[in-house]
Amino acid sequence: MEKFYVTTPIYYVTAKPHLGHAFATIVADILARWNRILGKEVFFLTGTDEHGTKIEKAAREAGKTPKEFVDEVANMYMGAWKALDISYDKFIRTTDEEHEKAVSEFVRLVWDNKDIYKGVYEGWYCVPDETFIADFEVKDGKCPECGRDVQRVKEDAYFFALSSYKEDLLRIFEENPDFVKPNSRLNEIVKILKGTLRDLDITRKSVTWGIPFEPDKEQTVYVWFDALINYISALGWPNGSKFTEFWPADVHIVGKEISRFHAVIWPAMLLSAGIDLPKTILVHGWWTVEGKKMGKSLGNAVNPIDLSKKYSVDALRYFLVKEKSIWEDGDFSESGLVSRINGELLADLGNLVARVLTLAEKFKGKIDGKAEIADNLNMSRIMELFDGYDINGALNEIWAFVRSINKYINDTEPWKLDGPRLGTVLNNSLEALRIISILLYPFMPSTSESMQAQLGIKLGTINDCKFGTFNGKVKRGKNLFDKIVTA
Ligand code: ME8
Predict the structure, then answer these.
(1) Domain range holding 369?
(2) Distance (Å, rounded) from C-alpha 340 to C-alpha 237?
(3) Are the beta carbons of 354 and 478 closer than 8 angstroms?
(4) Closest residue by Cα to residue 435 from 473, 476, 378
(5) In terms of CB atoms within 10 Å, which of 144, 303, 338, 428 comes out highest?
(6) Structural domain contains residue 32
(7) Residue 127 falls inside a structural domain
(8) Atom of ligand 1 at shortest distance to CA of 294?
(9) Residues facing 39 on adjacent strands
């Protein structure tokens, strides 16, 4: 069976899950579910990043031990993903024993390959981003990435010979133009690579909340070096059978602020350890609020669970993918969400299902007849968009099909028909709804399920997305969506 391995970033436990985290995780869930209905065996990984300075500091501020603190927040993430219908196969935590062992083994391989040397790190460190920053990048004592204060650090440290992988990485990017998506992000990475690529400090002497660095126990492993290894430790690397089955990953989903870690540092680490590289790093854009990146630091984080309770999980999932291209930034507003519910989910889909099922339930004749609207569905385009991970494009294409069925109903006016002609129009409409219920499954799993319950059918696979003779047993249920009335 063909395999598909998809991952999200593992989230820092310093922040509670917000809409940005939910977005990245929903994107991964959509790809996982899509590949399941393609008939592949899927492994979908998410989890939490639990070591490092900022977590140590956050625990102290909360009056807890780091362990108590990380357990609490990791549980919060698991709860959030359950609430949002995230179908992950494994939730990894970097404090898992299996992960810690894998990190030590990884360090050993890189060490044996003579890619680690001792030196002194003197420079700046951004605690919220857990990033080392060169002198020339710091402006007025602030981090160039997030704008927060940086700390001066001077300590003995071990370095990874990142710079020696520069040419290899450039060649890999040249040979695999899909290694980073979208292309504009690949170009940015190539530009970074062609500039000065410094070796990376991979240990911290002053940080105790971390994985011991085996060659020198006075040091702990730098949190990013530790965190990236989650993508293989979760599969039981070095010995696990899942590693043999699922590695290399098909796609690592990451936000644009961490593309450099995934497209430069991670592949160099893997090259040094002699492990295959992942196939694609998918770099998505941000959700902003009034133009500013949503996040804890700005205090503008939107709670996805509150929204899902207020409007439904599926409405939120739909909105996050439909509202903006996956590659670009998009500004969040609750009014935008409401207008997608009323104007699309209810007006295009909910009403269509109600209209067709009401007519079908009343009809006593035979539902069959030739396909009249098969050409409205561009399956090869949908497949192609999914192949390129453009899930916003795919959803737009699916929605064009939904709208075309509304037009078909308006044009054929089935409420004025009867006999075999009505049987044919109903057959086309019901078959269209059956196909829509499959295509929407990755995006809105419970809406898809509710459509199937009302159509009296089972989910099926992508191979079932073609017109035939409808053979479900129709039973109208409750409306898929209700109108949201705002004051
Ligand atoms: O960076 N819009 O964790 P993190 C869209 N632990 N997506 C957003 C977002 C926003 N406003 N804010 C966050 C870390 N995200 C590291 C990762 S991986 C080995 C280690 C999403 O908790 C986006 O995917 O800061 C981003 O890359 C990720 O959350 C960062 O989560």
Answers:
(1) 333-464
(2) 43
(3) no
(4) 378
(5) 428
(6) no
(7) no
(8) 11
(9) none
Residue among 118, 475, 126 at smallest CA distance from 297: 126
Token pair 């300075």 in the structure block, residue = 53
Determine the distance separating the centroid of ligand 1 and the alpha carbon of 376, expressed in angstroms: 38
Q: Which two tokens stand for residue 262?
A: 């995934």
Closest CA to 147 of 164, 133, 168: 133
In eight-state DSSP terms, residue 392 is H
Q: Which two tokens stand for residue 433?
A: 């709804």
Place of tokens 């644009």: 256
9 within domain boundaries:
no
Average the pLDDT over 35-54 and give the result.
Answer: 97
Which of 7, 10, 11 should be mutated for ligand 1, with most atoms under 8 A from CB? Answer: 11
Average pLDDT over the chain, rounded to an integer: 96
Q: Which of 266, 222, 265, 264 is nearest to 248 (CA)?
A: 266
**Do the Cβ atoms of 100 and 211 come closer than 8 Å?**
yes
Residue 327 predicted with pLDDT over 80: yes
pTM of this prediction? 0.97
pLDDT at 217: 95
Assess if residue 350 is contained within a domain.
yes
Q: Give the dihedral of Cα atoms 448, 453, 456, 458; nearest 10 deg.
A: 50
Domains held by the chain: number: 1
Report how far residue 89's alpha carbon sits from residue 324's, in angstroms, rounded to the nearest whole number. Answer: 27
Per-residue confidence (pLDDT) for residue 215, from 0 to 100: 97
Cis peptide, bond prior to residue 238, ω within 30 of zero:
yes
206-220 confidence digits (pLDDT tens): 899 999 999 999 999
Around ligand 1, the residues with Cβ closer than 6 Å are 9-12, 15, 20-21, 23-24, 49, 227-228, 230, 254-255, 257-258, 286-287, 293-295
Q: pLDDT of 164-200, one tens digit each?
A: 999 999 999 999 999 999 999 999 999 999 998 999 9
Lowest pLDDT segment from 16-25, 32-41, 290-299, 315-324: 290-299
Centroid of ligand 1 to alpha carbon of 234 (angstroms): 19
Give the mutation target among 14, 23, 93 for probing the ligand 1 site: most ligand atoms within 8 A of CB.
23
Give the pLDDT band of residue 290 (cuts 50, 70, 90). Answer: confident
Q: Extract the runs of DSSP E, i.e. beta strands, from 163-231.
A: 180-181, 200-201, 203-204, 220-221
Residue nearest atom 13 of ligand 1, based on CA coordinates: 20
Which residue has the CA at smallest separation from atom 26 of ligand 1?
255
Nearest CA to ligand 1 atom 11: 294
11: enclosing H helix or E strand: strand 11-12
* Separation of alpha carbons 77 and 267, rounded Å: 27
CATH number for the domain harbouring residue 443:
1.10.730.10
